[in-house]
């Protein structure tokens, strides 16, 4: 017989995940908090999910619930300690299990398999839709295999077959949250078997949820219409979703007004009614669109001052996100605004002229385009090549005047589609302010207080990457200095950068009893590391310090823990108590070498989401 949540928890679930407005979500979250405080372990787990944001559809985009990963971790920890199998699913859906959580699971259930069996009773027919959706997600991501440390079914097809029935059940019970993942499964089935039944079922489900007014589904259907060029139908879907507060739908409406897709073209309406309010709230696509509207003169006159200001805000926002995602090295695509900034800085339109720096930036961006390919639309490539031609025409930077090269690059710029539309009426000369500054600097030199923060940098990209790296380092200071990496007896593992110090002792205890194969403290930007495993009741410790490898053995757990704690404090190892690996007997040296070469098949590495 299927298990059910208590009535207050079910009501809260309905408010958060089956209503689509911020007020209902807020009320539901408060109800979960009250139920959790009264001792409901399931409520703690579901409450943790409400703090994860909409990035991976933990909650709907329209819920407006604040993101707080620390609160999410605290809630899910209470849920697991309270014996909630659903709480375990809430944990593994987004990250690996902390050592303390793994220990609590073993103490309460005895095994991961027992947790899974209990969780499945909530996901049975007649049970809880959100439990079925969670279980389906955990199978699809491979998180269940990490819980079990059993990877026999862990391939794309195995995950799909295990996830599909649970996702399907959650949809049939009226929870739309799992439809995106169900559709992914349906697509995989079609690719493998040629059967369209599940794709057709997904389409029917989307129609059902669109009729029910689910904003996310209306937006998805709008995207389908847009991709087919059915702009009026797309606009209708976006409009319905936007009415419920769906931000990307509002952005799409603004974009369509800007270009007259399915609606009468109106840049004024696009900017004032849709894009600018979103941009002022930090919505990236809208921030870029605001810069473009001002730069290209969609409103009639070009406003380079506002355009450049929005470009700066885009770069500043990326710096902010880098600080919140200190281990994320990719996904920060600010290429779209650099050509605009190059023009403004080269000619002094909308900002203080910095021609030499602009030249370096233009040349670097074109080098990247020619060597690495480009994500830029053609009219922005045309802008860059036009500027490169101007560099040779004017002899800017360290480049001599070369009229032949200037003509070549000007002609290349004109060959790009959209040149006349986008660049035909541009001024290719310094602004009056830029001309005056350059003239004065040529006579008197440039005073320090007249320089901008970009004047002496190599180029805008290098400057931006340096700012982002500084923000990452500051972000890392708020986390543990050493990454905690654990490996299970089979192939699974998890890495943590957010953990309490006692988790190291918890991890060592699990190494001692064979639950973990090993633990390691390392840094992503350093080769220094300390690894501990337990063989024949002896703790074997391997350290790499500044390229020198050391080995130590002890039967006392407290000594092994003391070594780990000393390492965490940045004190390295007391070399007089450790044996350099080159002095270890040959047979043992080969074993040490094998340990270093082991690769963790990391199924559940913990990253810090963008909205951390």
Automatic annotation (TrEMBL):
Gene3D superfamilies: Tetratricopeptide repeat domain. Keywords: TPR repeat. It comes from the Bacteria. TPR repeats lie at residues 215-248. InterPro entries: Sel1-like (IPR006597), Sel1_AlgK (IPR050767), TPR-like_helical_dom_sf (IPR011990), TPR_rpt (IPR019734). PROSITE patterns: TPR (PS50005). PANTHER family: ERAD-ASSOCIATED E3 UBIQUITIN-PROTEIN LIGASE COMPONENT HRD3, SEL-1-LIKE PROTEIN. This is Sel1 repeat family protein. It comes from Selenomonas caprae.
């Amino acid at each position: 017989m299927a298990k059910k949540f208590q009535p207050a928890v079910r009501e809260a679930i309905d408010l958060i995940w089956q209503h689509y407005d911020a007020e209902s979500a807020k009320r539901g979250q408060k109800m979960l908090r009250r139920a959790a405080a009264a001792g409901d372990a399931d409520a703690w787990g579901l409450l943790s999910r409400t703090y994860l944001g909409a990035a991976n559809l933990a909650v709907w985009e329209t819920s407006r619930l604040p993101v707080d990963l620390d609160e999410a971790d605290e809630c899910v920890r209470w849920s697991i300690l309270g014996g909630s199998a659903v709480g375990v699913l809430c944990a593994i859906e987004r990250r690996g299990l902390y050592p303390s959580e793994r220990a609590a699971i073993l103490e309460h259930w005895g095994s991961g398999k027992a947790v899974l069996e209990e969780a499945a009773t909530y996901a049975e027919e007649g049970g809880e839709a959100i439990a079925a959706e969670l279980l389906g997600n955990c199978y699809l991501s491979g998180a269940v295999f990490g819980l079990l440390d059993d990877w026999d079914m862990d391939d794309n097809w195995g995950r799909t077959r295990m996830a599909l029935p649970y996702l399907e059940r959650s949809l049939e019970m009226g929870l739309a949250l799992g439809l995106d993942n169900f559709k992914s499964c349906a697509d995989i089935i079609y690719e493998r078997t040629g059967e369209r039944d599940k794709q057709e079922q997904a389409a029917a489900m989307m129609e059902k949820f669109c009729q029910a007014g689910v904003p996310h589904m209306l937006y998805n259907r709008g995207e389908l219409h847009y991709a087919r060029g059915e702009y009026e139908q797309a606009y209708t879907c976006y409009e319905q979703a936007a009415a419920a507060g769906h931000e990307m739908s509002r952005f799409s409406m603004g974009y369509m007004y800007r270009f007259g897709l399915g609606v009468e073209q109106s840049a004024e309406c696009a900017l004032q009614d849709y894009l600018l309010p979103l941009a002022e709230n930090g919505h990236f696509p809208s921030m870029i669109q605001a810069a473009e509207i001002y730069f290209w003169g969609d409103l009639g006159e070009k406003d380079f001052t506002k355009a450049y200001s929005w470009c700066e805000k885009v770069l500043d926002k990326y710096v902010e996100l880098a600080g919140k995602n200190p281990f994320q090295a990719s996904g920060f695509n600010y290429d779209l605004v650099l050509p605009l900034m190059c023009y403004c800085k080269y000619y002094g339109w909308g900002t203080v002229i910095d021609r030499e720096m602009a030249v370096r930036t233009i040349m670097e961006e074109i080098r990247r385009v020619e060597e690495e390919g480009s994500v830029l639309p053609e009219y922005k490539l045309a802008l860059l090549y036009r500027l490169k031609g101007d560099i040779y025409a004017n002899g800017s930077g360290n480049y001599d005047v070369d009229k032949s090269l200037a003509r070549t690059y000007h002609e290349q710029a004109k060959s790009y589609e959209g040149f006349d539309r986008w660049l035909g009426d541009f001024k290719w000369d310094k602004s009056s302010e830029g001309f005056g500054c350059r003239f004065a600097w040529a006579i008197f030199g440039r005073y320090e207080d007249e320089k901008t923060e970009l004047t002496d940098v190599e180029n805008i990209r290098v400057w931006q990457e340096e700012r982002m790296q500084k923000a990452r380092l500051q972000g890392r200071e708020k986390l543990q200095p050493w990454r905690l990496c654990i490996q299970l007896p089979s192939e699974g593992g998890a890495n943590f950068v957010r953990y309490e110090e006692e988790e190291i002792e918890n991890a060592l205890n699990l190494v001692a009893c064979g639950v973990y194969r090993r633990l390691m403290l390392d840094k992503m930007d350093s080769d220094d590391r300390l690894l501990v495993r337990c063989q024949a009741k002896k703790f074997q410790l391997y350290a790499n310090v500044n390229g020198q490898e050391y080995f130590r053995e002890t039967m006392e757990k407290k000594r092994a823990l003391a070594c780990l704690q000393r390492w965490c404090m940045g004190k390295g190892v007391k070399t007089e108590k450790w044996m350099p690996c080159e002095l270890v007997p040959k047979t043992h040296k080969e074993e040490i070498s094998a340990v270093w070469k082991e690769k963790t098949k990391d199924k559940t590495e913990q990253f810090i989401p963008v909205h951390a």
